[in-house]
Structure formats: C-alpha cells, structure tokens
Design brief:
The chain is of the alpha+beta class. It has a single domain, classed as Aminopeptidase (3-Layer(aba) Sandwich), CATH 3.40.630.30. It has three helices and nine strands, in the order βββαβαββββαβ. The strands form two sheets. A six-stranded mixed sheet has the order 1-2-3-4-8-5. It has a three-stranded mixed sheet with strand order 7-6-9, with no helix packed on it. Strand 2 and strand 3 form a beta hairpin. The protein is globular, with a radius of gyration of 15 Å. The two termini are 16 Å apart. The structure holds coenzyme A.
Length: 143
C-alpha cells in the first residue's frame, strides 16, 4: 500500500498473507511489513493513516485476522491505529526446521493483532500468552 500526497509517496507498507494454524483451526492471516514514512515527513500522521487503512484493507481481503510483530517502542503507534497488543505472545517466524522466534536474544518485540471474522473473534482469547507458529519461510522471516 502506498500513501500518496500530491504525487509524492509519503508512506508505504506491505500486507503479507498466509494460512496460520493455531488452536486447532486454520486462519487466513495477514501481517504488516516494511512500514515506513519518508524520513523528512515523519510525525505528520501519515503512518497512522496508513496502518489504520491497512487494517480495513485486510478485512476487504477477507482475511480472518491480522497479526505481526514490531519493536516495543512502536506498540502505542499501532494501538492508536486500532491494533491490539497481545501480551506475552511470541510469533515464531522462519520455518519449522529453522525457526525465527520474536523473543530471540537481542530482540525486544511485541505482537499486535486485529480479529475480523466471527471465527477469529471467537478464538481471540487464545492468542495472548502463547507461542504462535507463523512460519512464513526464509524470505520474509518474521512479520
Ligand atoms: C514508524 C513510522 C512508520 C511512523 O510514521 P509517522 O508517519 O512518523 O507516524 P505518525 O506521524 O502517524 O505518528 C503517529 C504516532 O506514533 C508515534 N511514533 C511515530 N514513530 C514512532 C517511533 N519510532 N517510536 C515511538 N513512537 C513513534 C508518533 O509520536 C505519533 O504519536 P502522537 O500521535 O502521540 O504524537 C516512521 O517513524 C518510520 O518510518 N520509522 C522507520 C521505519 C520503522 O521503524 N517502521 C516500523 C517497522 S515495524
């Protein structure tokens, strides 16, 4: 997604998607990646608008839920855009053979989510305080 103001790309992000197996159910999950606002245009609300719109776009894509990690200092930024912090949740990236967890040494990540469909909303209480095998592969190792 690109946010364009007067012909200039001011902010951008990617929505990544894959099936997520959790609590005996397979959900269609989306995640945010490469969220960025032009360095000279930060602090003007562009990022807020884009990560808010990304949540609505995930619903338009018929995803069950959105889930991703971010550095802890950005938790408030995403919460203010309608994303929900999942306390003590760890996303496990990489692959089953070569996992890339969000709580590895040197990382200080939190997990954010939004639950869209009735099935996801019903399962939402099972998402905090758990380790979730996302396993997106070797390229986008962790959302
Ligand atoms: C994170 C980023 C996309 C925010 O974009 P932005 O357009 O500056 O954000 P906004 O102007 O909409 O800011 C919204 C709020 O988030 C806060 N915020 C923004 N960046 C922040 C940061 N790095 N740390 C803590 N808070 C931050 C702002 O202070 C603002 O809060 P306020 O409304 O209380 O003043 C931008 O700082 C950026 O591109 N950073 C480098 C890349 C990066 O870290 N991406 C995130 C990957 S998960």
């Amino acid at each position: 997604m690109l946010l364009i103001d007067d012909g200039v790309v001011v902010a951008a992000l990617d929505i990544l998607r894959k099936p997520l197996h959790h609590a005996g159910t397979t959900f269609q999950a989306g995640g945010l990646s490469t969220v960025v606002t032009r360095a000279d245009l930060r602090g003007r609300g562009y990022g807020h608008r884009l990560v808010t719109d990304a949540r609505n776009t995930m619903m338009d894509l018929y995803l069950d839920l959105g889930i991703f990690t971010c550095d802890r200092p950005l938790q408030r930024f995403y919460e203010s855009a309608g994303w929900q912090h999942l306390p003590n949740t760890v996303l496990i990236g990489g692959t089953p053979d070569n996992p890339f967890p969000s709580d590895q040494p040197g990382f200080d990540k939190v997990v954010l989510a939004a639950f869209f469909t009735p099935a996801a909303t019903q399962a939402a209480p099972t998402f905090p305080n758990t380790r979730i095998p996302l396993h997106p592969g070797h390229i986008d190792k962790l959302w």
